[in-house]
Protein backbone atom coordinates (compact mmCIF):
# COMPACT_ATOMS: atom_id res chain seq x y z
CA UNK A 1 0.00 0.00 0.00
CA UNK A 2 1.35 3.41 -0.97
CA UNK A 3 0.09 6.93 -0.42
CA UNK A 4 0.60 10.33 -1.97
CA UNK A 5 -0.28 13.83 -0.79
CA UNK A 6 -0.58 16.85 -3.07
CA UNK A 7 -2.12 20.33 -3.00
CA UNK A 8 -3.67 22.15 -5.93
CA UNK A 9 -4.65 25.79 -6.22
CA UNK A 10 -7.95 26.68 -7.85
CA UNK A 11 -8.83 30.23 -8.91
CA UNK A 12 -12.53 31.00 -8.82
CA UNK A 13 -14.40 33.81 -10.57
CA UNK A 14 -16.89 34.28 -7.78
CA UNK A 15 -19.97 32.27 -6.89
CA UNK A 16 -20.32 29.14 -8.98
CA UNK A 17 -18.77 25.81 -9.84
CA UNK A 18 -15.23 25.23 -11.12
CA UNK A 19 -14.59 21.86 -12.79
CA UNK A 20 -11.43 20.30 -11.33
CA UNK A 21 -11.86 16.85 -12.90
CA UNK A 22 -9.07 17.27 -15.48
CA UNK A 23 -6.59 18.45 -12.83
CA UNK A 24 -7.41 15.39 -10.72
CA UNK A 25 -7.08 13.03 -13.70
CA UNK A 26 -3.69 14.45 -14.71
CA UNK A 27 -2.33 14.16 -11.19
CA UNK A 28 -3.70 10.64 -10.66
CA UNK A 29 -2.20 9.50 -13.97
CA UNK A 30 1.26 10.63 -12.87
CA UNK A 31 1.34 8.93 -9.46
CA UNK A 32 2.00 5.29 -10.33
CA UNK A 33 -0.96 4.06 -8.28
CA UNK A 34 -3.43 2.00 -10.29
CA UNK A 35 -6.10 1.14 -7.73
CA UNK A 36 -7.07 2.91 -4.56
CA UNK A 37 -9.02 5.74 -2.99
CA UNK A 38 -8.64 9.46 -3.60
CA UNK A 39 -9.72 11.81 -0.83
CA UNK A 40 -10.14 15.47 -1.75
CA UNK A 41 -10.26 18.04 1.06
CA UNK A 42 -11.29 21.68 0.66
CA UNK A 43 -9.40 23.87 3.14
CA UNK A 44 -12.05 26.59 3.33
CA UNK A 45 -15.29 27.35 5.20
CA UNK A 46 -16.96 29.25 2.35
CA UNK A 47 -16.38 26.80 -0.52
CA UNK A 48 -17.22 23.13 -0.95
CA UNK A 49 -16.87 20.10 -3.21
CA UNK A 50 -19.47 18.37 -5.37
CA UNK A 51 -19.76 15.49 -7.78
CA UNK A 52 -22.26 16.82 -10.29
CA UNK A 53 -23.44 16.48 -13.88
CA UNK A 54 -20.84 17.76 -16.35
CA UNK A 55 -22.91 17.89 -19.55
CA UNK A 56 -25.60 20.53 -19.12
CA UNK A 57 -24.85 24.01 -17.76
CA UNK A 58 -28.56 24.19 -16.86
CA UNK A 59 -27.89 21.81 -13.96
CA UNK A 60 -25.40 24.25 -12.46
CA UNK A 61 -27.75 27.20 -13.02
CA UNK A 62 -30.64 25.34 -11.37
CA UNK A 63 -28.46 24.31 -8.43
CA UNK A 64 -27.35 27.91 -7.89
CA UNK A 65 -30.93 29.19 -8.19
CA UNK A 66 -32.10 26.65 -5.61
CA UNK A 67 -29.35 27.51 -3.13
CA UNK A 68 -30.00 31.24 -3.63
CA UNK A 69 -33.62 30.70 -2.60
CA UNK A 70 -32.66 28.41 0.29
CA UNK A 71 -29.82 30.62 1.58
CA UNK A 72 -30.29 34.22 0.43
CA UNK A 73 -27.53 36.78 0.76
CA UNK A 74 -27.53 38.92 3.88
CA UNK A 75 -27.71 42.62 4.52
CA UNK A 76 -30.17 44.59 6.62
CA UNK A 77 -29.37 42.46 9.68
CA UNK A 78 -30.46 39.12 8.19
CA UNK A 79 -27.38 37.44 9.71
CA UNK A 80 -25.27 38.42 12.71
CA UNK A 81 -22.02 37.36 11.01
CA UNK A 82 -21.53 39.77 8.09
CA UNK A 83 -17.94 40.82 8.82
CA UNK A 84 -16.85 40.40 5.20
CA UNK A 85 -20.07 41.44 3.50
CA UNK A 86 -23.60 40.22 2.82
CA UNK A 87 -22.35 37.02 1.12
CA UNK A 88 -20.18 36.02 4.12
CA UNK A 89 -22.57 34.05 6.35
CA UNK A 90 -24.56 32.60 3.43
CA UNK A 91 -21.28 31.18 2.09
CA UNK A 92 -20.65 29.42 5.41
CA UNK A 93 -24.21 28.02 5.45
CA UNK A 94 -23.91 26.78 1.84
CA UNK A 95 -20.62 25.04 2.71
CA UNK A 96 -22.27 23.44 5.76
CA UNK A 97 -25.14 22.13 3.59
CA UNK A 98 -22.84 20.66 0.96
CA UNK A 99 -19.49 18.96 1.67
CA UNK A 100 -15.85 19.86 2.05
CA UNK A 101 -14.48 16.35 1.50
CA UNK A 102 -14.99 13.73 -1.21
CA UNK A 103 -13.76 10.14 -1.47
CA UNK A 104 -13.58 8.72 -4.99
CA UNK A 105 -12.43 5.21 -5.97
CA UNK A 106 -9.46 5.01 -8.35
CA UNK A 107 -9.11 2.32 -11.01
CA UNK A 108 -6.60 2.30 -13.85
CA UNK A 109 -5.01 5.41 -12.28
CA UNK A 110 -8.21 7.41 -12.94
CA UNK A 111 -11.20 8.39 -10.81
CA UNK A 112 -14.16 6.03 -11.14
CA UNK A 113 -16.77 8.54 -12.26
CA UNK A 114 -19.96 8.05 -14.24
CA UNK A 115 -20.25 9.23 -17.82
CA UNK A 116 -21.95 12.48 -16.83
CA UNK A 117 -20.11 13.11 -13.56
CA UNK A 118 -17.48 15.75 -12.87
CA UNK A 119 -15.76 16.91 -9.69
CA UNK A 120 -16.36 20.56 -8.84
CA UNK A 121 -15.15 23.14 -6.39
CA UNK A 122 -18.20 25.21 -5.47
CA UNK A 123 -17.29 28.80 -4.63
CA UNK A 124 -19.95 30.31 -2.37
CA UNK A 125 -18.53 33.86 -2.15
CA UNK A 126 -19.45 36.44 -4.80
CA UNK A 127 -15.88 37.61 -5.45
CA UNK A 128 -12.95 35.64 -6.92
CA UNK A 129 -10.80 33.61 -4.52
CA UNK A 130 -7.76 31.38 -4.63
CA UNK A 131 -8.78 28.07 -3.08
CA UNK A 132 -6.61 25.15 -2.04
CA UNK A 133 -7.55 21.49 -2.32
CA UNK A 134 -5.57 18.73 -0.62
CA UNK A 135 -5.44 15.43 -2.51
CA UNK A 136 -4.63 12.23 -0.62
CA UNK A 137 -4.24 9.05 -2.64
CA UNK A 138 -3.99 5.64 -0.96
CA UNK A 139 -3.62 2.52 -3.06
CA UNK A 140 -1.67 -0.19 -4.80
CA UNK A 141 1.22 0.65 -7.11
CA UNK A 142 0.89 0.04 -10.83
CA UNK A 143 2.52 -3.11 -12.19
CA UNK A 144 5.66 -2.10 -14.05
UniProtKB/TrEMBL annotation:
It comes from the Bacteria. Signal peptide: none annotated. Pfam families: YjbQ. InterPro entries: UPF0047_YjbQ-like (IPR001602), YjbQ-like_sf (IPR035917). SUPFAM superfamilies: YjbQ-like. Transmembrane segments: none annotated. Belongs to the UPF0047 family. This is YjbQ family protein. It comes from Siccirubricoccus deserti.
